[in-house]
Amino acid sequence: MAGASLGARLYRQIKRHPGLIPMIGFICLGMGSAGLYLLRLALKSPDVCWDRKNNPEPWNRLSPNDQYKVPLDGSRVLP
């Protein structure tokens, strides 16, 4: 058992305790959703600038019709 890989140990535990299957499924679903959300934030958010050389001020590319948040007094943020 000391030399068994992680996949083999997980398979044995699932065979012994089938109630783990929904828990593992929900954990994988949550981790996948969190990863996709972080990827969306990194690629679509105007707050993130990946290319400083060619686009040093990305906020200047936003048109007046784009929706972005503007903090008014530091405590309240309007959409």
Explain this structure:
The protein has 79 residues and is mainly α. It has a domain at 10-44. It has helices spanning 6-16, 20-44; strands at residues 70-71, 77-78. The chain has a two-stranded antiparallel sheet with strand order 1-2. The protein is elongated, with a radius of gyration of 22 Å. The termini are far apart. It comes from Aotus nancymaae (Ma's night monkey). InterPro entries: B12D. This is NDUFA4 mitochondrial complex associated like 2.
Q: Which key phrases capture this entry?
A:
single chain, 79 residues, mainly alpha, two-stranded antiparallel ribbon, 2 helices, 2 strands
Write the layout of secondary structure elements.
Blueprint: H1 6-16, H2 20-44, E1 70-71, E2 77-78
Antiparallel strand pairs: 1-2
